[in-house]
Design brief:
single chain; 732 residues; alpha/beta; Endonuclease, Chain A; polyphosphate kinase like; ten-stranded mixed sheet; 20 helices; 27 strands; globular; disordered C terminus
């Protein structure tokens, strides 16, 4: 591979400086909620990207629908409450809650319409590939009898038909719950019946039925399955009209701050969540207007608040149609690499770490290494203590099993379990009880702050000294998401970082404020002020005529104070390249304000999740003198002010080079999956010119080994991505 230009700031990126003539009239901040919807639009566009395998396009459609549902249950629910209670909190860009709701509804409606528009095309293409979602009319006469048997044995026992009349109270439907509304008439046509059939959430949404004549895999939606055999549910009746509907409820949690039993309080709050206020009702189009008005009234909606869709409710379930039998319709599989350097030490992780710091990039390097780190600690007789934060993990987590084994083997195990991890609260309660049964000390951190930092320490007796081995991550200790999220895992035996992390754990368990941290900064104590100080240092250097550069990779950037100092940095001549996957409140490329800032979003096979900050520190990037950090924190108010977050300096030169020359350079050089943020808040995908070479950073990482984990395979160095002078090449 020849050198690729990773200088995104100076690339031809089609940036339109629309506001250059009238700087004084600009609203310098992009609305957070609208920026999030814009991100979900980019996700949805992958469902329409013909370069993406067909099943993956279907998955992107499901993800965009799932994202929007969660957005409504959390963010929109909050705005509705503010409007209802007449709370006039003005957003950073100057909008009232009511004004934001109006704009959200307009943009969300357009997004839903596009989702529904894409569905028939995707299903049509799937049909050509032998995966068919049939409608009732597509059921073959020859299979009707066997299908009836399948219905009676696998669906009918789970159904509860309900009449809708004054004698029957309207049933409770949980959030994300669905139901069939039916207008029925008996066979002699003398009696009609309005009825409801809640759709069991524990059954597969798309029921697999017998393969077709040509071997095609055939599915029938659960709601259509019920309609076909409604005569078994309501004997003597036939369907005149029907529609399906789905509701979303307010999913925010309210927990009593002075609760004596925090776990019990969260259990109660979770039950309340299930009965939260309905904030959205989505229905399939129907002519049953009277029935729709009746159900809307029972649920608490006015008719005009109901969202009608043209094709299907519950698009978030579509990934059920992704089957292993059609592997060719998925991304090409790859095997995550195991660090060769650990293999050089016969799998002894501690020996490998003692030799040199190790940085893994998931999912390209296996998350099994993180699991093995804890499993080896659990079984090592020289290990004395293990400390671990847990924000999100799987219900059957090997991380938790390793911690339990360590505790059962007599080691001192301390686990910080965050109960306030949204939508994972119930799982985390179960995790905490499992750990306590094994003998681990479980703590819950701060009531007002979430603990979002990803930290693990292992204390080992080595001769007459205690050595601390530390793992710092940008992502959760979650084996499943580690297969699709790009995150960084740093393993080190550096004593200064070990001391820092120990102090942080003492802070979490005993509220002992950490002093004199050497290699890390934590939120909410000092991170925001430290970030501003480091950006201002680049401003100082720029004014002195020295090189001043920043490379930043985040999931979200919305903090107004941080954005303001970034604008000042741009105005002072600091060159700032940013990779912001999701929400971004900053407007780049505006003359006189942000002409030295570029922002791009990478949307592709993997979800970009790692956070990286590189400060030139008076040197042109890349440089060994740069200040390089990895972090668990985005630049948002919640991360900087209301969460315990880590911001860790990278000191090892090999790891520095891996982050700057490899990870950041590849993300900046990416064109195939990149969207460039325009000054007006819109994103523009890179338009390739004839014969212009493409570059996909995810494919690059799959194909090329990382620097710090190569061991004896060091001769297989990845190709350089930086088109720099020979003098600068020698910097790393």
């Amino acid at each position: 591979m020849s050198y690729i230009n990773a200088d995104f700031l100076n690339q031809d990126c089609d940036l339109e400086q629309k506001y250059s003539k009238d700087l004084g009239s600009i609203n310098t901040l992009i609305n957070r909620e609208l920026s999030w919807i814009s991100f979900n639009w980019r996700v949805l566009q992958e469902a329409n990207n013909k370069k993406v395998p067909l099943f993956e396009r279907l998955r992107f459609l499901a993800i965009s629908a799932r994202n929007l549902d969660e957005f409504y249950t959390v963010r929109v629910a909050g705005f509705r409450q503010m409007v209802k209670n007449k709370i006039e909190v003005i957003s950073a860009d100057g909008l009232t809650p009511e004004e934001q709701l109006m704009q959200i509804e307009r943009e969300a409606k357009a997004l839903i319409e596009k989702q529904q528009e894409l569905l028939p095309s995707l299903l049509s293409n799937l049909k050509k590939k032998g995966v068919v979602l049939i409608k009732p009319k597509g059921i073959l006469a020859s299979e009707k009898k066997n299908l009836e048997k399948q219905f009676m044995s696998k669906v009918f026992p789970a159904l509860t038909p309900l009449a809708i009349d004054p004698a029957h109270p309207f049933p409770f439907i949980p959030t994300e719950g669905s139901a069939l509304a039916l207008k029925l008439r008996n066979r002699d046509r003398k009696k009609s019946l309005n009825a409801l059939v809640p759709i069991p959430g524990m059954l597969d949404r798309f029921q697999k039925i017998k393969d077709g004549p040509k071997g095609e895999k055939r599915f029938l939606s659960l709601e259509d399955f019920i309609v076909v055999f409604i005569h078994k549910v309501f004997p003597g009746y036939f369907v005149e009209e029907y529609f399906s509907f789905r509701i979303l409820r307010d999913s925010d949690l309210e927990v009593e701050e002075e609760a004596e039993d925090l776990v019990r309080e969260f259990e109660i709050a979770l039950k309340r969540r299930k009965r939260g206020e309905v904030i959205r009702m989505k229905v399939t189009k129907s002519t049953a207007e009277t029935l729709l008005k009746l159900i809307s009234k029972e649920i608490g909606f006015e008719r005009v608040e109901v969202i009608e869709v043209s094709e299907m409710i519950g698009l978030s379930d579509l990934d059920e149609l992704i089957i292993s039998a059609k592997q060719s319709l998925k991304w090409k599989t790859f095997v995550p690499r195991s660090p060769e350097r650990i293999e050089d030490f016969n799998g002894d992780i501690f020996s490998a770490i003692r030799q040199k710091d190790l940085l893994l990039q998931h999912p390209y390097e296996t998350f099994d290494t993180v699991v093995s780190f804890l499993e080896q600690a659990a079984r090592d007789p020289n290990v004395i203590a293990v400390k671990q934060t847990l924000y999100r993990t799987t219900p059957d987590s090997p991380i938790v099993r390793a911690l339990c084994e360590a505790a059962e083997n007599g080691k001192t195990v301390t686990a910080l379990v965050e109960l306030k991890a949204r939508f994972d609260e119930a799982n985390n309660i179960n995790v905490s009880r499992e750990l306590e049964k094994a003998g681990a000390q479980v703590v819950y951190g701060f009531m007002d702050w979430k603990t979002h930092a990803k930290l693990s320490t292992i204390v080992r007796q080595e001769g007459k000294v205690l050595r601390t081995y530390t793992h710092v991550g940008t992502g959760n200790y979650h084996p499943d998401t580690a297969k699709i999220y790009t995150d960084l895992s740093l393993f080190t035996s550096d004593a200064s970082l070990g001391r820092d992390v120990t102090k942080v754990f003492n802070y979490l368990s005993g509220y002992i404020k950490p002093n004199d941290l050497e290699s890390m900064i934590i939120a909410p104590l000092e991170l925001k002020s430290s970030l501003i100080k480091m950006i201002k240092n680049e401003i100082f250097l720029a004014k002195k005529g020295k090189p001043a550069e920043m490379w930043v990779k985040l999931n979200a950037l919305i903090d107004p104070e941080i954005i303001d100092v970034l604008y000042k940095a741009s105005q002072s001549g600091v060159k700032i390249n940013m990779i912001i996957r999701g929400i971004c409140g900053l407007r780049p490329g505006i003359k006189g304000l942000s002409e030295n800032i570029r922002v791009k979003s990478v949307i592709g096979r993997f979800l970009e999740h790692s956070r990286v900050c590189v400060f030139g520190n008076g040197f042109q990037l890349p440089s060994t003198k740069a200040k390089v950090f990895i972090s668990s924190a985005d630049w948002m108010g919640r991360n900087l002010n209301r969460r315990v977050e880590s911001f860790v300096e990278i000191k090892n030169l090999t790891v520095k080079s891996q982050i700057v020359n490899q990870i950041m350079a590849a993300n900046l050089a990416d064109k195939e999956q990149s969207w460039v943020l325009q000054p007006d808040g819109q994103y523009k995908r890179h338009q390739f010119k004839p014969n212009e070479p493409s570059f996909n950073c995810h494919e690059y990482f799959i194909e090329n080994p990382s620097l710090s984990g190569r061991g004896r395979a060091a001769q297989n160095a990845p190709p350089s991505l930086l088109n720099v002078s020979n003098k600068r090449k020698k910097a790393f």
